[in-house]
Design brief:
With 342 residues, this protein is an all-alpha fold. It has one domain. It is 73% helix and 3% strand. It is built from 15 helices and four strands. Strand 2 and strand 3 form a beta hairpin.
Length: 342
Amino acid sequence: MVRAARGPLAGFLLAAAGLALIPWLASPFQILFSTEILIFSLYALAFNLLFGITGLLSFGHSAYYGVGGYVAAFALVHGYTSLPGALALGMAAAALAGLLIGYFCVRLDEIYFAMLTLAFSQMLFAIAWQWTEVTGGSDGILGVPRPPLRFPGGTVALESAGAFYALVAVVVLGAALLLWAVVASPFGEALRAIRENPERAEFIGIPVRRYRLAAFVLSAAFAGLAGALVAPFGRTASPELLFWTKSAEPVLMSLLGGIRVFLGPVVGVVVYLWLRDLISSRLVDYWMLVMGGIVIALVLFFRGGIVGAALTWWRARPRETANDDTPRDERIDQVVRPHGGR
């Protein structure tokens, strides 16, 4: 187990080193784009805990993304001066929403589960659109501030793109490590057993509904944290955060990258956002049509996602003869999957 943990730890340390270099090497636009990638990566990883690991397809994850964004924005606009506290409030509110909604949803399977999650998210969208006194209606909550981080020795301003990027990078890396720990734990193994065969999992003593609800709440909490980050990032929280299109994005990102590989959704986020910006800058009127065709082709020809296809290709190569008696494909798995992952 210690050996299996070295790969992921090395991968996270390498990622942290690479992220630390971005403010020094990138342009202001690239820093903003990197911040967006990080926030969507957390959103997609949170979604994939429910989809790829537990086997439950949610069409309504924008509910928790939006709740986190609105609660954090409301707190900051109304005088709450702690940004970490606002992020924690958004995460807690999303977890509570996940508990209430998940209590009803986890009783259903497959398409019925998916449609009920969509119905709840659209209900919250309608509330945000109509409850003008609290949510600002169609305009949303505008002018969300970025209060400085306060430490015993002083404060750190977050108004610049680089400073806010650094905060997002720390939060997202920490959250990703926590999600990794969940996926690699016995609890994560139980979730994969439920995904493969819920009837057999129930038969061997796993409380399927309770575990599904726990996964639902965890997924909602981390999606809410991503939404709480997006409010001060964009300086606003609007009903768009709760709309069904925001639920479709993590589905596409996860499928593009690979739902059975922990970091697959992160690769999907990078590819999706890069294609979106590239195509929309050249084909302003038809970018969604072109984007849809590319996504369809990738999903059809890379059934395991980009990372899954890369792993399949790697395994097909002849194995090396080396002093390390661990097969090469297993060593690669240790970097991108939790131990025991499928």
